[in-house]
Amino acid sequence: MGAVLILAGCASTPPAPVEDRSIGGHQRRGHVADSGASRLPAGSYRVRRGDTLYSIAFRNGLDYRDLASANGIDPPYTIYVDQVIRLDRRARATRRPVVAKARKPPRESRTPPASGPSTPPPQSGSRSAQVPPTAVAAEPARVSPQPAPSRPPPPGDTVDATPSAGIVWRWPADGPRDGGFVPGDQTHQGINITGKSGDPVRAAADGVVVYSGNGLIGYGELIIIKHNSTMLSAYGHNRRRLV
User: Fold this and answer.
1) Which of 58, 102, 215, 234 has its C-alpha lying 20 to 30 A from 45's C-alpha?
2) Please, where are the H alpha helices in 26-180?
3) What are phi and psi of 56, to 5 degrees?
4) What is the β-pairing status of strands 191-194 and 208-213?
């Protein structure tokens, strides 16, 4: 058995809850479109039975939140059979840069420096005996070492917050890894984990099942789990789905 983890596993223990994508417990039945209506504009997709917004976004490499926004779909992101979804290429699931605001430099103080005490002019006249001053050795001041002040990061060096903060990740299967993620290659969007038939595949973290099916070509029996508003994990090529 081969399992594919696409930062994305399968049922957790306890099993993850499944979102109900039906209305009143029954899915809306779509009408069979005629040959004329089946022609879709470029960059569009017609919803089929078993699809979810998450699976459509996952299949096309899009961010499901941006895809929902582009099509006016509000949470909980319910879609219907035969609904036409516009696949906005601007909704690509890329890492969003963090824009750091430049800090204003502190204003320089223009207060003139304080004048030192003026030296009194020498007095002329009497030749009174002057006692030479006695030099006293001052005890050197003890200076405690102070830690060097940390330099504030320059504008633009703000560290991007980890989107998986608060998620406890775990290895989803016991077998060895025999393949990795290849950027830009749609056939290598995750890691391959080798296993034997019947080996369990666990969820990589707690979450909610948002897709369970085999409608995505190339992934076999697939499960997608939503962990938070930014992180999904997917588990493909399973022998059987238990959720």
Assistant:
1) 234
2) 53-59, 64-70
3) -65, -45
4) unpaired
